[in-house]
Amino acid sequence: MNKKQKTILIRIITASLLLILLTVFRTEGILRFCLFLIPYLLVGYDVLKKALHGIIHAKPFDECLLMTVATLGAFAAGFIRDGDYTEAVAVMLFYQTGELFQSYAVGKSRKSITELMDISPEHALIPDEKGELIETDPEEVEIGTLIAVRPGEKIPLDGIVKKGSSSLDTSALTGESMPRDVTVGDEVISGCINKSGLLYIETTKEYSDSTVSKVMELIEDAGSRKSKSENFIAKFSRIYTPAVVLGAMALALLPPLFLLFTGNTPRWSEWVYRALIFLVISCPCALVVSIPLSFFAGLGAAGKKGVLIKGSNYLEALSEAGMMVFDKTGTLTKGVFEVTNIHPDKISENELLHMVAHAERFSNHPLAQSLKNAYGKEADGCTVEDAEEIPGKGVKTKVDGRIVCAGNEKLMADTIEGFTLPPCESCKNHTGTLVHVSVDGVYAGHILISDVVRPNSRKAIESLKKKGIKETVMLTGDRENVARAVADEVQVDRVYSGLLPQDKVNKLEELMQGRKDKTVFVGDGINDAPVLSRADIGIAMGALGSDAAIEAADIVLMDDDPLKIADAMAVSGKTLRIVKENIWFSIGVKAACLVLGALGLATMWTAVFADVGVMVIAVLNAMRCIRS
Amino acid sequence: MKKSYKIDVDCANCAQKMEDAAKKTAGVKDAVVNFMALKMKVEFEEGSDPDSVIKEVEKNCKAVESDCQIFY
Fold first, then answer.
1. Which of A37-51, A53-67, A392-406 has the weakest average pLDDT?
2. ipTM
3. How, if at all, do strands A518-523 and A384-390 pair?
4. Which one, out of A199, A223, A273, A350, has a CA that is 20 to 30 A from the CA of A532?
5. CATH number of A124-153+157-208, picked from 1.10.3720.10, 2.40.40.20, 3.40.50.150, 2.70.150.10
6. For position A394, what pLDDT does the model report?
7. Would you say residue A76 has pLDDT above 60?
8. Is A327 an annotated catalytic residue?
9. Contacts of B17 (CB under 8 A, 6+ apart)
């Protein structure tokens, strides 16, 4: 509880005690009136002040004015009728208690949500000449400074490891609990926690460009893109409050006037009292507070899972998504090439891979890297000599004295006399690149290298369908047979292949035509920025450290697990459900109480519950969004 | 030029009022209040002095919501 909240708590307690005293020791007449004013003013003076302030600045319709009119009215009613002012003071007391509770609940939830997302570092440590570590504000560290990060601390700025090795906990950014190992030469990003060893890092970005501040900025800005529900509530309360005040005035004036003209007793005080009850019930705070809180909590819950959503509007739109369009390379597949099949001829699999990995030792070709990775322990004692790269064909080297050629069919035809490619059943419909190998002029087999589908892609598509996605589509620039193979493996409904980047936008527009629900595009953010922004919702994957992707997308998956999209949809669904519950519940209870109030069946106590009680319940309900 | 300020305000409705008041201040191109993060983001007009404009913004905010605060 902060200082403001404590003062109001003391005021509430003192006023309650005074009220009890005044009801026990009965006084009469004007003295009684004055004595009751003491607890009333003590607990409610700021409300009166705000109401007056609103009137002076010509913005009178707010809840403070409603409470002021209601309580002063109750005082007047007491004065005319029976001299009972308890109700007037009690209503103000309840109102303030409710406000206090609300402010406490909102503060509490704000704290738990911001703690959830707090990845900003407290300081950067810069070693001086003696090697002592000086604490510095991360914002003051220049590019190229050597900083130290001790185990257990957050990396304050993006950079490259210069000394030491350690494993990093990236969970604050990605929601992924697997630690990532780093050593000298590796790029590291701010916001990760150094788990084991002391690291010296040369910074490559200023604090304001670092991953941490980009992500924090994104989270803080998220609240400013308001959802349709929030806009609805804002508009609603703008019309609603004046309407209720007019309604209350009508209730206070019209029925008594009608009674008067029809020759009955007008019973003014009773109708004015009903109008006051009407005013208290009508306060729209339950909606005004709980709806933005629900979205904020939903954004926090998604952030915790490594899904950054750039605004409440996208969180809301996600629940209306009907079609999901995926990019292939780098999204459904890993986008890196891996050895997927080894078909040796005459020698063993391992021997074939061993030969190729060595033959490619000095090559920078991307395929060479894949081959070396597949073998793993390439740096053994074998000698590699006379490495020669034959452009467009492959490589030719001497491994342990044997001539090894690795490359395409043309290279084989060049190096083996009278070469004909032996037929291979399993590679007939291959969807990758074949590397053929010959050893000492004899064909030794081939290795298939292809892009691999992400392990979670199929599961992701499956669970998205369960979450209400009606259609899944894959767009790719790749050849048709490759596209088909991937599409069959992950089970997307439709696939369009051979598309240039600009074709993808056209295709997406064509697909979006005539659809009423929202279309989501999922890409890796590398060359699909136009498509990301054209779709209703653009999701970029594996965006950790990629500014371009963070810029272009509406929703950013910090790591590259497509299953996270389903997580985000679950959060979205739950948030929207809670928002709807709160809207219906608050408006429903209030409407019921308003009718009861107008009919004279509700007391001031019912009214206070309808205002404060409903708000507290709505706030508590909103907090459930965090735990999704 | 954009700047972000920490603010203190009690309710979501009051935050909305602050936002409206800040937007109407001379020298402010756009302003957004995030009640949950308790931050106000102000985009200043070209050539205006942020330090004096933000003082005006606070004055205007106080006019609509007496117990709000902007930290600058």
1. A53-67
2. 0.77
3. unpaired
4. A223
5. 2.70.150.10
6. 84
7. yes
8. yes
9. A59, B61, B64, B65
